[in-house]
Amino acid sequence: MKKVILTENAPAPIGPYSQAVQVGNMVFCSGQIPLDAKTNQMLTGDIKGQTELVMKNIEALLKAADCQFSNVVKTTIFLTDMRDFPMVNETYGKYFTQAPPARSTVQVSALPKGANVEIEVIASR
To answer: Cα dihedral sign for 53, 56, 60, 61?
Structure first.
């Protein structure tokens, strides 16, 4: 059975998708970009700050699904500039200190709303 996860503590969807979906014990979180959940405004500037906001948005989705970062089994990071990878990786690593999930990182030509980073996660409850 599919259950839609929705929280006001993460940015509202900007299209026809759910913030996260739970199927059985798996939680699939839509990609998060550096949007402020309260204002729906994009955070610009330093990539570390953008990544921090993305991770906070993911944290809010995981919490709404009764999960935490230790439940995450797979992540995908999308970057518009692979030169940002070391800074993104440093910030990301603060959230996965033990038994980190499997991960893919890819460079893309563009992201929604002109974002520089987007991260999606899959968790197991």
So the answer is: positive
**pLDDT at 45 (0 to 100):** 87
Total domains in the fold of the chain = 1
* β-sheet bridge partners, residue 22: 3, 27
* Domain membership of residue 33 as a residue range: 2-124
19-68 pLDDT, tens digit each: 999 999 999 999 999 999 999 999 988 999 999 999 999 999 999 999 99
Q: Which of 21, 19, 13, 10 is nearest to 123 (CA)?
A: 21
Output phi, psi for 52, to 5 deg.
-60, -45
Helix (H) or strand (E) holding 107: strand 102-107
What is the rounded distance in angstroms from the CA atom of residue 4 to the CA atom of residue 23?
9
We report the CATH number of the domain holding residue 102 as: 3.30.1330.40
**pLDDT for 76-91, tens place per residue?**
999 999 999 999 999 9
